[in-house]
Amino acid sequence: MASLKFSVSVDTYDSNKFHFSANPSFPIINSFARVKPINLSRLDAESWDIPDSNPVAEDIKTSWSKDSGGLESSNYRNDIWRRFQGVKRVNRKDPNSKLRSARIDNGPEEKIYVKHFDGELDMNEYGMVSELSVERCNAILKDLERSSDSKTMRFFEWMRENGKLKGNVGAYNLALRVLGRRGDWDAAETMIQEMSGDSNCQVDFRVYNTLIYACYKQGHVELGTKWLRLMLENGVQPNVATFGMLMSLYQKGWNVAEAEFAFSQMRSFGITCQSAYSAMITIYTRMNLYDKAEEVIDFIQEDKVTLNLENWLVLLNAYSQQGKLQEAERVLLSMQNSGFSPNIVAYNMLITGYGKSSNMDAAQSIFRNLQSVGLEPDESTYRSMIEGWGRAENYKEAEWYYHELKGLGFKPNSSNLYTMIHLQAKYADEEDAARTLDDMKKMGCQYSSVLGTLLQAYERAGRIDRVPLILKDSFYEHVLVNQTSCSILVMAYVKHCLVDDAIKVLQEKHWKDIIFEDNLYHLVICSCKELGHLENAVKIYNQMPNKKPNLHIMCTLIDIYSTLGRFSEAENLYLELKSSEISLDMIAFSIVVRMYVKSGSLKDACSVLETMDEQKNIVPDIYLFRDMLRIYQQCGMLDKLRDLYYRILKSGVTWDAEMYNCVINCCSRALPVDELSRLFDEMLSRGFSPNTITFNVVLDVYGKSRLFTKARKVLWLARKRGLVDAISYNTIIAAYGQSKDIKKMLSTVREMQFNGFSVSLEVYNCLLDSYGKEGQLESFRNVLRRMKESSCASDHYTYNIMINIYGEQGWIEEVANVLTELKESGLGPDLCSYNTLIKAYGIAGMVEDAVVLVKEMRENGIQPDRITYTNLINALRKNDEFLEAVKWSLWMKQMGL
Question: Could you give the CA distance from residue 597 to residue 83 in angstroms, rounded to a whole number?
Answer without folding.
Answer: 73
